[in-house]
Amino acid sequence: MMKILHIQTIAVLFTGLILFSGCKKEQTCSENTQASYIDTTGLVLPDQRQVDWQKMEFTAFVHFNMNTFTDVEWGEGDADPSQFNPTGFDAEQWVKAFKKAGMKMVILTAKHHDGFCLWPSEYTDYTIENSPYKNGNGDIVKEVSEACRKHGLKFGFYLSPWDRHESSYGTDRYNKFYKNQLRELLTNYGRVHEVWFDGAKGPNAKDMEYDFQGYWSMVRNHQPQAVIFSDKGPDVRWIGNEDGIAGKTNWSLMDTSKVDVGNADRDYLNSGDPNGSRWVVGECDVSISSDWFYHTDSRLKTVKELLNIYEKSVGRNGLLLLNVPPDQRGLLPEAYVERLHAFADTVDEIYSKDLALDAEVTPSGVRTPERCFSGSHLTDTSFSTVWAPEQGTVKSSVELAFSKPIAPKRILIRENINYGQRVKQFAVDVRRNGQWETVQNGTTIGYKRIMKLPGKDIEGLRLRIEDAKASPVLSRIALY
Ligand code: IPT
Question: Which residues have a Cβ under 8 Å from the Cβ of 303 and sit 6 or more positions away?
Fold first, then answer.
């Protein structure tokens, strides 16, 4: 009797399981199926390496080199190597502090404009090999890249094209010299995830025609997953200022033929180009202090200033590259680390509790099949699931209703950029005491857009897409 009951129970459970998983299947939509219903004709799409890169959001820049010891921002290339002597250098102290702040990569100034190399390059004597650091046996590029690997951060390097020490600078021989150095860095230090080609050059610098095409193809050959930064990409572009602030309008598109590295139209870089023919994401570089290198009299930015930068870089479809410079010991100063962590904690605190998760989501329309494009995907926290209105529809809206009033101070909106950047104009309305009121208007969204809200009790919120390059494909609406 007992046995029969058991068998029956098992049978019932089993049938239930099959029905349940069958039901589950109905609800899900594979990325391939999703993609088959989304038309990307005529749109520029990102490479996977660019999407992966942008998802890091927050990365560390480290300006540490001869200038740290000579107390200048731009060295002239004549400082004696004996001056480079960090007595307490510890790459792990840097990397652990960055990791704790949620930063995903470290970019090190392997060589700045003065030409001094933090690794023992075979092609010049102006290196760490002739410094007192570890009696000339040190290699800071190696130590930093290894610390990154050990703690799970990505590694990238900055190799200044402008070199005020190297005598071949200004002749074509310099291109060969530069490529030799580049090859050393690309082949001796494991995986590299970003290479930074700074366009900076002093007004009295010698004329020099850099072979950027040659440099970039060398990066592609040796480190195909690495993104390449310069004023015009090819993968990521300068945002046009060193304040870490992207344009209110920020397209990840540009026409690279309009940009001359080092002499770019900064407004163009700041906002990108809706008609650009290439996908080149904006990178927002800024220092935690008033300078790139450490100086005792630098001013440290406040948490409020840093939060503002975060919301205008990551929150405007950019990536934040925040510089935190080590001091003459070769350590990140304690006060800098404290400030960095206070800032990171503030961001975590604000953005950890999404008030929209339980909202009832009602879109103006939903593309078929609904399981792939339901409005509820906007609040499921996944990057890949999307809401899209009916095929071909641009003007559309989504309404969120809350079971009890909430008072959000910020809205976060996201497009699924795998399908390109589409939205050109949108508005945010809130409902208070039954009345709708527009509280924000915007142009671009992209990977992530953050905007301020009044922070007063509301019963509902509506996002209206007013114009787009193609029918919108959104992945998230969050409220904080
Ligand atoms: C500026 C360069 O001109 C630009 O090409 C880019 O590399 C940028 O730096 C990175 O921050 S120079 C700076 C003194 C504005």
Answer: 339, 342, 343, 346
Which domains does the chain show, CATH number per domain?
Answer: 48-351 (3.20.20.80), 355-479 (2.60.120.260)
Query: Residue 457: which of 333, 380, 320, 355 has the closest Cα?
Result: 355
Q: State the distance from the centre of ligand 1 to the C-alpha of 201, rounded, in angstroms.
A: 8
* 300 class by beta-carbon count within 10 Å (0-12 exposed, 13-18 middle, 19+ buried): middle
Cα–Cα distance measured from residue 262 to residue 259, given in angstroms and rounded to the nearest whole number: 9
**For position 28, what pLDDT does the model report?**
87
Going by pLDDT thresholds of 50, 70 and 90, the confidence category of residue 22 is very low
For residue range 460-473, list pLDDT tens digits in order: 999 999 999 999 99
| 382 Cα to the center of ligand 1, angstroms | 36
Ligand 1 contact, 114 CB (< 6 A) = no
Angle at alpha carbon of residue 427, lines to 422 and 428, rounded to 5°: 120
Q: What is the pTM of this model?
A: 0.94
How many angstroms separate the CA atoms of 143 and 183, rounded?
18
Task: Report CA(301)–ligand 1 centroid distance (Å).
Answer: 20
pLDDT digits (tens, 9 = 90+) for 156-171: 999 999 999 999 999 9
Q: At CA 419, angle to CA 418 and CA 421, rounded to 5?
A: 100
Atom number in ligand 1 closest to CA 197: 7
Element (H, E) at 376: none
DSSP 387: B
**What is the C-alpha to C-alpha distance for residues 462 and 427, in angstroms, rounded to an integer?**
8
Residue type, 270: N
310-320: buried (b, 16+ CB within 10 Å) or exposed (e) per residue? bbbbbbbbbbb
